[in-house]
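Help: why these numbers?

___
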Amino acid sequence: MRQKTSSPGFVAAGLGWGLAAGLALGVLLIAPAMAALGGASTSEPQGLDPRAQSAEAEAAAANEVLATQAEEMVAGELEGTAIVMIRAAGVDDDSADKQHWLINTAGADNAGTITLTDKFTSQDAANELSTIISSTLPAGAQLSVDNRSPGVHAGEAFAAALGEATATDREFLLETLAQAGFLTYDEDVAAADAAVLLTGPPAQDSSYADRLLAEMAQAFNAAGGTLVVAGEGAGESEGATRVDYADTEAGRVNTVLTLRDELS
């Protein structure tokens, strides 16, 4: 087990991180409600409520503080682990790059990135996705017979492919899905101790895409893998640990620390 030593300076920095993160996330939670309240008035343009503007400014300031401390906060937290990133369609390059950098800064080995396309979460392509997964499943992996949804089967297949599967089996699954237009992936995608699934903002209603990704995350963990969902905004992910507001500095740091906790 790793042992850590503390110093007064580091403890002070930790307290600063806690205060800044609490402020940033707290403001992110209440700002939308404040904006909505401000928009209820017909005497002022919607979205210009001074309280919401002040809250957003405070959140931005807190994130600036965290940006200067993030590297120190996560140093060594993922040492000796390998992390693979799975990006849902709609996650911008900047958010993915920043999260990827912080995970590497925490000491994790880079196990590559898999980027899902819109087709992966399209209901029109559900049957095709299920067919490919069932025909390219890594040796020894099993698919649920009680729940045959493509999200569940995708989670089970990815857990096997990114876990104990051979490099040949992993390549076969990923390359077949890539050729069919369901994803793109780094050539160096390797076995990983954990995966982080980056998702965009949740839909206003319960969309098929959101359900598929949630089922995939739950099935990945149920199959013995370790996956953390890092989503923009607030949301729910039953059966998988989720970090909200992962596109903020506080969220990115929290994602790293959550990966650490899930692997401990």
